[in-house]
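Write out this protein's structure.
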Amino acid sequence: MLLDRLKQLGLSEKESKVYLAALELGESTVQEIAKKAGINRTTAYFHIEDLIKKGLISSIEKKKKRYFYASNPENLLRILDSKEKEISDLKKDLNSLIPELKTIYNLAPYKPKVHFFEGIEGLKSIQEDILKSKFKEEFSLVNLDDAYKIFPPSPKDHRHKLKKKFLKEKVVRKIIYTSKKGEILPKKEINPPVERKFINPQKFSFHTEIDIYGDKIALVSLKGKLIGVIIEDSELAQSLKVLFKLAWSCI
């Protein structure tokens, strides 16, 4: 326990062993300390010299022979004081650097914001982001069989929450979907306005969902390991909208 606590203060394992050995033995030779610490004499001497520099071991000569002993354990507080000073100095240096670093950061080209999600809870987080985001149109590409398998339709699922949002905010939607069951969804609905187009899974097979809303793109893997990502970038979102509209016009 003491060994671990000393290591937390910043001493190495061998330094800790040497210090504890010197503490237990009192005035003793390098050889005695090495034996007590369970290390060789040369290594012990090397760490004793380091501990002397740290103020944790002192030495005395008697009859032309050098003896070592542990200093008052309160000297261990000096290590913490030294660490505190180092951290304080580092903070000062960092604070002086931050303005310059911010200038470089602000001059850098705009970078898209990317958020990764995993598992069912991660996919629910993506659904929540769509619910709370503001936009006037949404474009979706989805494998309906996979989506229903992960989130079976129910009266209180996220689809009903989204429908309420789209109705309230007058969001226009276009959906391209696939299903082995065929064309199972109506082509059009009025409240809220939505258009759907079916593609044959035998001709176009995919196991993902893509949602384009506002300046965001949500990409979700619906098969195997559930992984999702939200990319927030106006140019990328606009480009994907163009590709979606191109695909829509070809169906």
